[in-house]
Amino acid sequence: MADVSVDVPSPLRKCVIFCEVECVRLCCGVDAVSTDPALIEDWCRQVGSAAVVEARRQLAELIEVVEDRSQCVTSDFLNHRTHDEAARRELLDFLTALDAGLTAGDAL
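-> structure tokens emitted (108 positions)
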């Protein structure tokens, strides 16, 4: 299985940083980032619709890469590696929850 390293561009990167309230990514990876819809909606209100739309587009691209099971996805920014199916599922669950929050925030 080939390794592919992904970056998280802004504004999606800024959303993740804003929601990094449980711990720090360097320590806990995606577990450090809250996917609480109210928190994500707060970020959406602060940055405006254009940034939210772009973050959702970036997130869709990231989900597509992670769903490709022919590759092992690593992200230094998220401090995560999909070394097995459980790790891939954990990342996909995180990204899906983030997307749900952004979708709700975009509707405001």
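The beta strands are 2-5, 71-75, 80-81.
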